[in-house]
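Re: that chain you flagged

S.,

Sorry for the slow reply, it's been a week of failed gels. I finally had a moment to sit down with the sequence you sent. For the record, here it is as I used it:
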Amino acid sequence: MLLRDIWKSYTLSGVAVSVLKGVNMTAYRGEVVGIHGPSGSGKTTLLKIIAGLERPDKGEVIVDGYNLNMLDEYGLALYRNNVCSYIPQDFGIVDAMTTYENVEIPLLLAGVSAEVRRRKVVEMLDYVGLRDKASMRVGRLSGGEKQRVAIARALVTTPSVLLADEPTASLDWTNAIKVAELFLNIKKDFGTTVIIVTHDARLLEYVDRSMNLFDGSLKQISSPKL
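Prediction finished late last night. Pasting the structure tokens below so you have them in one place:
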């Protein structure tokens, strides 16, 4: 994954505010990258640009050979469902649906057959340790369980890149460690590139490489563990 000279600004009360200022980044296949920075530093904006949910004012995002600048909205939707999965801070899951139904959503959108959907969903629920919660409505799950549902849903299409926005913000430290270790297992078992943004510097102990986003600029803290 390559980010080249990414700029992004917003207009607030008639004033242009620069959020990202010439961000450059390379993420390698099968590594976990942690991006740390204070609230309001542009971490979520950066993830949304990588996910194709927002477009940069300037610069390029290239993932698995796809230049996002060249994709229309339909192409970006296919990209998010097959190449790059995004887990928002609020998990993005539907409380009124069951765990199984939530994880199945990307496969339904992709037109996968019922037999294959069932096999893939069960495999993912086994992987995150939630098979026994398959028929339970998500609204009844704990915060840690909801995060694992969100991870299972993001993984079920076997994306190349997994983006997680503050994945441990609502968890106690014990559950936060479990989620961090799960991301490390994902990169090992699936060869997935995992990008985590967080304001909690403690999580950087559980990533392969750490970076800092401050005042619109991204700087590497530690070298890749390749």
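What I noticed first: Residues 173-190 form the longest helix (18 residues).

Talk soon,
D.
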